[in-house]
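Task: sequence design from structure.
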């Protein structure tokens, strides 16, 4: 029996969309295709975090030091278990896309009020359930876009697609 690498299936689909669309329309294309992305991701088994509430599984990435970042990407499956606290407040690269595959989450969004001190204030909170998506495409090529924190309320998985290495995202403090 031939083994199918489901990671390659979802990665191939993301790359196919990425080759057809650019920036703003790419985020819209991911959202329009969220059912197909969910179906492909559902074949990836849940990998419960052991010593923390969140575990990253990198499905694929490519980073080039080019002028436009058009070829850069990172695709991650997040594995979550419930926690009483949110993760640190953090920013992301120029474009990011989140999709809730399973579980229940509380997302807090923030805006910068002091760039030098990296101070933010809350602007919105929302419950996110399977099928919900969140995406941004910012003008800024910094790592302080889409500033948020997440709290897992029910164990599950999330799909993350970024235009750069998400671990380089800036950390912020709430006012």
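Answer:
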């Amino acid at each position: 029996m031939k083994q199918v690498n489901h990671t390659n299936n979802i990665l191939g689909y993301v790359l196919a969309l990425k080759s057809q669309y650019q920036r703003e329309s790419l985020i819209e294309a991911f959202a329009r295709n969220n059912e197909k992305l969910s179906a492909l991701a559902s074949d990836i088994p849940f990998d419960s975090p052991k010593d923390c509430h969140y575990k990253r599984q990198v499905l694929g990435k490519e980073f080039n030091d080019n002028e436009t970042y058009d070829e850069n990407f990172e695709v991650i499956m997040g594995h979550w278990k419930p926690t009483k606290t949110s993760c640190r407040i953090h920013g992301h690269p120029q474009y990011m896309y989140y999709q809730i595959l399973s579980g229940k989450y509380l997302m807090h969004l923030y805006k910068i009020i002091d760039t030098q001190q990296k101070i933010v204030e809350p602007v919105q909170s929302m419950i996110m359930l399977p099928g919900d998506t969140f995406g941004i495409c910012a003008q800024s090529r910094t790592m302080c876009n889409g500033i948020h924190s997440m709290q897992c309320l029910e164990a599950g998985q999330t799909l993350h697609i970024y235009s750069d290495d998400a671990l380089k995202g800036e950390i912020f403090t709430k006012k």
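The first helix runs from residue 6 to 20.
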